Amino acid sequence: MPSEQQQQDFYQKLREKVDNWLKSRSGMVSKVGSYILVAPDLFHLLMKMMLDDRIDAKSKTMIGSGILYFIAPIDFIPEFLTGPAGFMDDVVVAVFIVNAILNKFSVDIVKEHWAGDEDLLEVIRRLTHSGSDLAAKVPAGRLAKRFIKL
């Protein structure tokens, strides 16, 4: 597991990359900008939940898979080819995982680790609701629906 400092460094770099992209011309016209904006916060949430002793080993296996998906250099929409828009599939996978965790554990446990500016439940509700169509189009979303179960 990465150290606390390594986690923070990755989170800050990811946040900076997304912020810079959203300020760029391609980020401003992107239809997925609002989804990409929460990618760093979802990654941070997964990392913090992984370290929480109240979450069981089976759930941590799923959380760990989400973390690995975030940091994998090659996935269904690789960031090195598409820039921050490539985090769309990572967000879809993370939302499925967080939603599954919220259905199994107290909301307070999960909210405790949320670093985002918006309310966690509102973010998950918005992304789940509007992301259903996107998840059906993103290969990672179809895989997550099929294989991620608690």
UniProtKB/TrEMBL annotation:
Principal subcellular localisation of the protein: membrane
Span of domain DUF1232: 60-96
Subcellular location: Endomembrane system
Pfam families in alphabetical order: DUF1232
Bilayer topology: Multi-pass membrane protein
InterPro entries, alphabetized: DUF1232
Keyword set includes Membrane: yes
GO cellular component: endomembrane system
Alphabetic keyword roster: Membrane, Transmembrane, Transmembrane helix
Protein name (Swiss-Prot/TrEMBL): DUF1232 domain-containing protein
Lineage of the organism: Bacteria, Bacillati, Bacillota, Bacilli, Bacillales
